[in-house]
Each structure stands twice: as structure tokens, then as C-alpha cells.
Amino acid sequence: MSRRPMIAGNWKLNLTVEEAVSLAGEIASGLMRDDLDVLVIPGFLALEPVALSLSSSPVLVGGQNLFWQEQGAYTGEVSGPQLKAAGARYVLVGHSERRQYFGETEKTCRLRLEAALKAGLRPILCVGETRDERESGQTEGVVESQLAGALAGLSAGEMAEVTIAYEPVWAIGTGLTASEEQANQAHAYIRGWIGSRFDKLVANSTGILYGGSVKSANAAGLLHQPEVDGALVGGASLSAESFLGIIQAA
Ligand code: PGA
Q: What's the CATH number where 201 sits?
């Protein structure tokens, strides 16, 4: 399979700049693999110092969110060009915490995704169902509408820049993980959807990461599923030991 695996660590609202730089250094110096991409996603304040500290390392840096305007009177926002200039290569779009706490909608995901592409950043679009939605059999419908909303109007060429993260909301930060079969099935559904919306070539080359309570103990089983191309890790990315353990298990 030609898809290069990726292990991404989403540090969320954690770590001071100093702590973030120190964790990035520990990850870079402990990294033993060059057959996959490793990405760290610090808070905005730490992004540039972390990117500078990793400049001679293969570890990549991403942003947790971006605003869709490039500049102007939008107090408190951060734009794609600012992230790019600070050293980001990737940016998360539509993380479930943004959807849950900050009013993210399919429309705003679409705007952010387009802004990321315009700025030369690779968006990682996060999708996933809540526990109620899974229990009432709506997983595929929810994921489909999140994909269709955020990817509306995209060309196949633009889609080649996009990574998807399937993160069932009930598994994020809860210690509950999708079973290997549940993860693989959801990823296969997403890949099939991309195949019919774009084409098979795009579908087969799109990286689809799994996220939701990934840790070194469960990583190998999830990451060895044929449709799972990597992991988006929250809690377990805050320690170099556990994050490197996940990378080793991939
Ligand atoms: P978690 O978070 O690994 O702490 O469940 C994953 C995520 O939110 O990306």
C-alpha cells in the first residue's frame, strides 16, 4: 500500500512553551523510525518555538485550528498564513471539541479547510459520531454528512492534500477505544465515500487516521488494520515515552 503512515500528537490546551519545546525535543531524540510521518500539534503560542526546535528533525508541526480570513479585525483568531509562517505544515479542522464547545459546523469546517489549502497547509479533517449516534445506527450518516459538508466543491487535486481523522466522539479522552473491527469498518466506509465522491485513486491515496484513546497498549492492533493509516493521539501524546511507544507499535 502506498499510503505513508502518520502518528500525530494533538497536545490540545496543555503545556507551556517551555514544556512543549522540551517534549518535542524528547520525541525527536527518541524517534527510531523513518518509515512514517510524525506530527506534533502544540498550542498556538508554542507552535513557532517547537517548529524552530525541530528544524533539523523529521518531526513535523501542525496547528490545532485556523480562522478562514487571512487577516483583519478578527480579535483572537489565527490565520493560515500566520500558521504557515510559524512553521506549521498541517492543521486540524473540525476536531470534535471544536464542534462541541466552539460552535463548529459543516459550513465553518468547509471555510477553514479551504483557507488551509489556500495557505499551503495540509488539513486534517476530523469526523466521528457520538455514542447516541452510534447506538442509534447513525454512524455512517453522520460521518457522511461531515465529509460532504467539509469537502463540498473540492477538486480531486485539492483532496490529495487532505488527511481524514476518524475520531468517534465517545472514544476521545474516555479510555474507551473503538474495537479494531469498528475502526476498520468506519475507515473503509470513509474510503468508499471518497472513492465515489472523487475517484478510486484519490480514495486509495488518502490517509485516514484513527483517534480516540489510542495508547501504546492498543496501538498495534488498531494501526495494523488495513484501512487504518495512522493515529491522532491526544492524552498519550503528552508523554514522550507513551507517544514513542505508539510510534514503535505502528
Ligand atoms: P485522546 O484524544 O487520545 O485523548 O482520546 C484524541 C483526540 O482528541 O485527537
A: 3.20.20.70
